[in-house]
Amino acid sequence: MDRFSDILQRLRGKYEAFGRRLDEAEAVERWESAVGPGIAKHTRALRVERSELWVEVDHPVWKSELLFQKAQILVKLNGKLPEETRVKDIIFLDPRPTGPSSKYGNGGGYSPFRRTSNKPESK
User: Fold this and answer.
1) Which long-range contacts does 67-74 make (Cβ < 8 Å, 24+ apart)?
2) Which of 3, 7, 44, 98 is buried most deeply by CB count within 10 Å?
3) Span of 17-26, 31-40, 104-113 with lowest mean pLDDT
4) What pTM was computed for the model?
5) 43: closest CA among 95, 104, 116, 117?
6) Is the separation of the CB atoms in 105 and 98 below 8 Å?
7) Could you tell me if 22 and 8 are in contact, meaning their C-beta atoms sit under 8 angstroms apart?
8) Who contacts 63 (Cβ-Cβ below 8 Å, separation ≥6)?
9) ∠ CA(32), CA(33), CA(34), 5° rounding?
10) How far apart are CA 60 and CA 83, in angstroms?
């Protein structure tokens, strides 16, 4: 019987887009180990688009610090990965509001990383 990892590797080789999405998901998963637990508790890696990792940051001071450290973080994040799977840039985002007038929450106050609704966002 094939192991799940073997099946994923075969699918990665057969379907280029699937392999790319797996690489992107792995980059999101590597975020905490790249920045460490101290920074990770103030951030949330959201997604990878066009080799850019999008990260939500809970405070402008942390965002400024992360912009200063971006090159070092990219080195840690990418490690010895092949060029085609590397994250080329990091986009740091301000947190989404969750106040009473926000479409993201139920008015429960400011909490950048906790969603209070399972409803999909409308655009």
Assistant:
1) 67/92, 73/34, 73/35
2) 98
3) 104-113
4) 0.68
5) 95
6) yes
7) yes
8) 57, 92, 94
9) 90
10) 31
